[in-house]
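Entry 14. Structure prediction run on the chain below.
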Amino acid sequence: MAILIDEEKKGGIGILSVLTWVLIIGAIGGAVYYVFFAQPQIVSQITAPANFQNTQQLLRLGVSPKDVIESPAFQSLKQYITPLQPSAGGRANPFLGT
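Output returned:
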């Protein structure tokens, strides 16, 4: 049988441990407030870049996709890359044992 001798623990709670817990709870409380309750700042006015103003002209063109696909210039384009053929990969039931 072993004999264990423990030192007596000092009574009371140290000021350092109390301060540590207050800081931890304060940090968690602050994070919860900023994530869930704080109102985000809303940007009231967004200015577009100078080169973005040119896109307004594109809106007035009125081009339909059907016109583009049926145009002779689009029809004369060549496809240099062959499309991939789908292949059966893997087993029919991957959860079966080997």
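The two ends are 54 Å apart (CA to CA).
Filed with the rest of this week's runs.
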